[in-house]
Every structure is written in C-alpha cells, then in structure tokens.
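task queued by scheduler; priority normal; single chain, no ligands, no partner chains; default sampling; output format set to structure tokens
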Amino acid sequence: MFFKKSRAKIAGKFKWFPRACVLKHPVNTQELGEAISRKCTVTPADVHAVIRAMPEVMAFYLENGRSVHLDGLGSFYYKLSCAGKGVDSPEEVSVEQVRAVRVQFIPERSKQADGYRRVLGEGVELVEFGK
C-alpha cells in the first residue's frame, strides 16, 4: 500500500501525516471478473453478471433493514449521519435530523491462535509513494 506525506491544520498548527494513496485507475468489473475466474471454475462472463447484480440485490436487503454479510469479505449495513443535529428528548427525534444515509463496511475477521485477524488490512506493507 502506498502513502504520501500530507499536511493538515490541527488546533491552529500545521502537522504532517501519512495519507493513503491509490495508483492510476480502480480495478474495473471486467478485470475483477477475469481475476476471480482464474481462481475458480466460473467464466469471466458469469462472474461479471453476478457482480453486476450485487448492488441491486444488496440495496434491496439493506433498504429492508437487513445487514449483508459476504463470507470471507465482511458485512455491510446502513448508517445514519446526524452530525450536530441532536435533540433534547426522545419525542423530538425525527427524520429531519438525518443529514445522510451511508453504507458502513466492516471487514470479516477470523479467530486465530494469537487473536483475531481481519481478512482485509492485515499484513499491509506501507511504502512511501515515489520511492
């Protein structure tokens, strides 16, 4: 994983931090389908069809109050953003407080002898971009 040096103003002072960066363009559905098909007996076209159907099917379940768990990947669920719009009593809580509906993703973790390990994010080696 690559990072760049980034400057941010914190409490009136500028500080430097590493910031994750990505290279070129994201992996597209075609590339992902071809890579997945090399790992199993499914054709790239079949993988592509499943990937294309996933957003609509996941949205259906999420909109109906369910979370979606993909074995080996993790869980998705809706989260409401109401930042700065708290009220003083339960009777005042309303939909007008919601600023945004977001999708939260939690990578799957598995129990190992030495504790829990996440499938995504474990063993990531950080390398400064350009070096």
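post-processing summary
- DSSP finds two helices and eight strands in the chain.
- The first strand starts at residue 2 and ends at 10.
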